[in-house]
Structure formats: C-alpha cells, structure tokens
Amino acid sequence: MRCTSLALLSLACCAAADPSPYFLTPPELNASRGLVAGSRVSTGLADYSHGNGVELLVDGKAFFSRLYEDLVATKAGDVIQWGLFIANLDIHLIPPRNETKLGVVLKDAIRRGVVLRVFANQNLYIPTSSVTMCHELNRECHAARPEGGDCCLPEYRHGHPTGSVHEKTWLIGSPSNGLVAYAGSMDSSNGRWDESSHSDTPLRQGEPPEAHPFGGWHGNMLRFAPGSPVVRDFARRFWLHWHMPHKMHWPYVAQPYEFVEPAVTPQAQNVSMQLLQTLGCVGAVKDGYYTNAAPRGERSIMDGAIKAIKMATKYVVIEDQFMFFQDFMEAVEEVLPRLEAFYMVTDAANTFDTKVAGFNITAAGNMRAYHQRMTMGVLTTGKNAQYAHKVRSFALERLHTADPKAYEGLIYIHSKNYFVDDEFVVVGSGGLERASMTNDYEVAVGIADTKFVSTMRRRLWAEYLNVAQDDAILDDMTDLAAIDARISTGETRLRPYAPRFVESLNMLERELYELYEPEGRCDDATVRVDNTAEIDALFARPGMPNATYH
Question: What span, in angstroms and rounded, lies between the C-alpha atoms of 375 and 377?
C-alpha cells in the first residue's frame, strides 16, 4: 500500500485504500518517463494519493470568482505561484468591477508582502506577450522586494520553438498551512469568462475578446482544498520547475527558495488521484531541460488516459479542443468491441479558418480537418466500421443559433476531459494532439472516485443536453437512442459533427502541422537513469527533505 515514501504522509495518503487499478503503477510511471525498471528519479512526487478534497468549477465565471476569493485572501508571507500558457492582466475576474482586474489583484498582493512566482509561456507564435506581462509584474516585485529577484519568467525551455508551457496551474496561500491548488483547461485570458448558459451577456461582451469572437467558451478547472496531499505534489512540481538546473537566459533569474512542506490533512471527501504530466523527451535529452524531474521527459498524461480507457467496459467520453492525434486513438481502438458507447466532443475544423486582407486562408482549418478525420475515423472505418453505430462525435453551439458556421454561434470547447465508466476521469491541460501528449509542459490529474466522476459528468452533460442535472437521461450514457432523440429536438448545445473531407495536405498544410505539433518523443528505446546524486545535492540545502523516491 504505497503512495509515497514520505513517512509523514504515509498515514495521510496510504491508509485509506490501495491504489486504484486505473492509476499508473510505479513501473508504468517509469516507462512513461522513458526509463527501464530499477531506474531511480528522485522528485518527491507521490505515485498517487488519497484523502483529497476537490471542487469542480465548470465555467469561466465560477473559476474566476473562486480564484479572486483566494487571491485577495492572501497575506504577507503567502505565495502565489502560477504556470500559464497565455494571460491578460486586464481581464476582470468579476466583471465589470475594475478592482477585480487580474493585474490589479496581483499587484495589490505583491504590495501586501505576498511572494509571486510566475512561469509565462514564450514561443515562436507567442513571442512578446509574456515578456510584456513579466516586465510589468517584475517592476512591481523589484520595488517590493529588491533582493527577491525576478518574480515572472518568460519560459522558453520546452524543447521546440513552437512548443509551449501549456499548463494552467495556480498555487495560492500559506506554503505551510492553507495552500490551495488549481489545475485544468482555463487560461486567465481573453474570451474565457462565460457562464454555462452561454448567453453571450453584456458582461461577457465587455471583456477583452478572443482573436475569433466565439459566442461562448467552454472549459473547466479543479480547485484542490488545503490539506489535500495532491496540493503537496503541485507545490513540489513547481519547485522542481523553478530550480531547473538549466538556467534562464539573461536577464532573467529564478531566485532559489526553500521548499516548505504543506500541511497535509486528509479531507472528508477522500478523493483518490494521481498527478500526471507531459514533458518532452527531446527537450530533456537534446537541450538538458527537466534533468531534476524528468531526465528523459514524461508522458504520463497520454499513458494514464490510454490505460484507463483500455479498462472501460461501458462507455468513454473524450472532450477535447483538438481531437487530432491518431497515435492515441489507435491505442484505444481495441476497447471498442466491448463498449456500448464512445463519445467525442470537440471543435469543428472551421474554427481554424480565418481571413487575411479579405482572403479566406484555410490552411489551418484544412490541416485540422484532415488530422481530425484520420484520428476520429480510426473508430468508424476499416475493421472498426462494424462498431460505428456506437460512436458519436459532436461540436458545441449556442442554443437556437441561426448560423452554426458563424463564430457567434460557436461555443469553443477548451476542456480536456477523458471519462471512463463513471469510475475515472483525467482532467487537465493536455489535449488530444501530438504537442500536448509528447512535448509541451502539461499537467493533469487522474481521479478515481465514482461519486465525483459521476457528478462531474452529469454537470457537464446537463449543460450540453440543456437539461437539469437530475434528469433521467443522464442516468445511462449507454442509452444512445435516448440521447439521439434529445439532440434531434434541436434544444441542446450538441450538434453532430464530422470534419470536412480533405483528401490530402499540401506542402504548406503539412509544414503547418509539423510547426504547431512538435514531436517530443525520443527515437531510442528506454534507458536506465539514476539522478539521485544530482537531486540529493539540490536537496542538501537547509530545510530540504531527503527524497529518494518517485
């Protein structure tokens, strides 16, 4: 009954139950890190944990208002630690109140003596926004703590010019007592504030818009309660990132800090979960990134989701903005014969169509449509054609939209959720695309808890089907006839979707895929790695616990 080798956590984490069979085992975690059995990578992360408390935040309104509460409650000596893909300090956390603008809230916290640490994604297609944001925040931090170094770092160490820090994580509160964590699919940026009704209210219209003016935005976050063992894993993971031996380029400096053990108090909710990650092997081996955490990278999000889906017996739901990673779907197609239903909820390829100088540029849309069709078609063509009647694919649209092809009618689905039989769900930032599954910084959790998973699934599908959460239609996800009949009324937010036919890609479209979907896997086989001497040296500073375990 092992979830971690930390003696102080052994009772809190391990006494409640054995690990869920859905969780990756220690050998499987090793394999996801490109390591052979017997390798030792010391990170201090638990293999899994019990006793967690978790709150589902189903839309931007719920997430931003909860985030605001936690941020303004911080006091001197507390921390705010943030890993982000894209952000805008001018968004309102509670529109239209100007005192709730994200930048205002963060700067006020700095002036109260709160310690801010931020990793902000920087890459070829987002080259300057993180620099601009970090300049603004660092100026405030330097004024408040001249000796403290930079508090915001543009993060380019992700293995590829178009790779990214794609995670959406927060740690807020007292490092030792009262730390909360957030993870999921919601960026604190333009166009994300929305309600589950997707009514495109004046409050939403008053926020900074996305590049494409979608009529709605669907994403979700999880908030992990203080005392939850998994919060410690999030704190440890951030510490490892901040102390990556591969230093930042001038002029940025990540000022070292001592890791403080968060207080662990098992929560009555007692949810079991496993922290999952993506870190690219190419970035680790070629560039020397992540050597203190994943010297061969990690792909436990992909491996964890595939393992769970292969254990499904009734239904699978994948909710994802991309849905174009054929390798993933090929790995799970073996489960189709015994399943009763397989659902995919994604964005239509035309969301990537755009106009430049009045001309329709469809390269991105064609690339997406081609790879979506190749990926989704695995489950419905060839040898699997006999199972096509079990498979449903949908896009989201606002109720009674006049033109489902217009941006105003589209609800952009940004969630990355993988449901298995109301028994297990993977929730995080890792989408069904090559970059997310093999290269980028991604974070997710696998949750094995029937009550939580069932409640989350009902909450989301009540929104999709436009019914109450206790509606009988949500009792049985294998009743395809009932769900089809409901959709046929035209009173739902689901519309059947199949990507447009694109027979082949031209050179521009092929290069576009390679550019935006970097391959992070290494070509060679798994190897033996023992980085304990390097990690033990890092942990030798005062206040650092020993760590000779996963």
Answer: 5
